[in-house]
Write a structure and sequence with these properties.
- This protein is mainly α and 356 residues long.
- Helix content is 52%, strand content 10%.
- The longest helix has 20 residues.
Length: 356
């Protein structure tokens, strides 16, 4: 099967929000396995964060091409990129895998460029019960096993994730029971726990609270956490709540898109990927205010992602670009299937009057 056919989008583009649950719970990096006997080769190389620094300049510093082996040190490669004039921070992440090839993402933050504002790490001593922490770690193991067995589907229509895998789902039902009776504890940990893992677990579990509107502010607070794992879990929880907001307008749930939009300019890959998925859910029904906010604050970043070589990663931002351009989802799908990304991108980049 050729790549174009293999990566063809689903019949309804909104299904891209689900994707692989393993990747939604934490992008699978392969840098930690570089010392293994069989190091994967590089497939696609995707860049982001470039405004003034050219792609040619960045690639000349990286000195990697598709087909090369992964370099010996992630840290050394990032340090070399940060020596480029105008670059204040670099992130290199290898994501496993397309076949036997790793996908390489190289991101930079340029001096004076847009970036999300994050708060300082808390220094309090709030902690979660030890059994909840243990259950959450077992839950992640269950999700990983489910993914390897092809049973990683999840349902977000309740406003939180419910997986098809029975073992993983049993843990999620425990999280819902805990959140129903321990909201104040979870809030305290989000704001006052010095250990990032504690805050990350709290951000995941509080999303299972029965009254979603009551925890929206807590989760939006967590989206500004200095730890990327906490932010990722908070965004996932809010992303599921966004599904319920669209499905049940009578519940009067209100999510602000600002935090998601700002993270589209992050140097951290998971910030961008999770923010895109949340915004897809939030704009499932027409939400012109949210789309205009993206256009004003982060359209260059979104376009950059929509042009990525790896189609499975480019499709979700392309869907958002199409919505910003004012196109219905079925028309966006037609352009995607024909390989017509650039015409849609140019419509979105055109001035408002011209697009109308």
């Amino acid at each position: 099967m050729g790549r174009a056919q293999q990566d063809r989008p689903p019949a309804h583009l909104s299904n891209v929000i689900r994707g692989s649950v393993i990747r939604r719970l934490g992008i699978g990096l392969v840098f930690s396995a570089w010392a293994a006997a069989q190091v994967p080769h590089i497939g696609d190389i995707n860049l982001y964060g470039l405004r003034k620094v050219s792609a040619q300049k960045l690639l000349s510093v990286v000195k990697l091409e598709s087909g090369d082996s992964l370099p010996g040190s992630k840290g050394e490669l990032e340090e070399r990129i940060e020596e480029v004039s105008g670059v204040v921070q670099a992130r290199v992440e290898a994501v496993c895998c397309e076949g036997r090839e790793a996908i390489l993402f190289v991101g930079i933050e340029e001096r004076g460029g847009p970036h999300p504002a994050l708060r300082s790490a808390p220094a309090g001593d709030a902690v979660l019960p030890a059994d909840l922490v243990a259950n959450y770690r077992q839950f992640l193991d269950a999700v990983e096993r489910a993914a390897t067995q092809g049973n990683a589907a999840e349902d977000l229509t309740a406003g939180h994730s419910l997986m098809a895998d029975p073992r993983a789902r049993a843990f999620q039902e425990q999280f819902a029971a805990f959140a129903a009776s321990h909201i104040e504890l979870l809030r305290g940990v989000l704001r006052n726990a010095s250990e990032p893992e504690e805050r990350a677990i709290a951000a995941a579990v509080i999303g299972y609270a029965p009254r979603k509107q009551e925890v929206v502010d807590d989760l939006q607070y967590a989206v500004e956490d200095p730890d990327e794992g906490v932010r990722a879990n908070a965004i996932r929880s809010l992303s599921a709540i966004a599904v319920l907001e669209v499905k049940r307008p009578d519940l009067a749930i209100s999510l602000a898109p600002t935090w998601f939009v700002d993270l589209l300019n992050s140097v951290v890959l998971s910030d961008r990927v999770e923010a895109v998925r949340a915004l897809i859910n939030l704009t499932e029904v027409p939400n012109r205010a949210a789309l205009e906010l993206i256009r004003e604050r982060a359209l260059p970043a979104l376009v950059e992602m929509a042009r990525w070589k790896t189609l499975s990663y480019a499709l979700p931002p392309f869907l958002l670009v199409g919505r910003i351009a004012g196109l219905p989802d079925d028309q966006i799908r037609q352009h995607w299937e024909k390989g017509e990304r650039e015409p849609v991108i140019q419509i979105a980049l055109a001035p408002v009057r011209r697009r109308r």
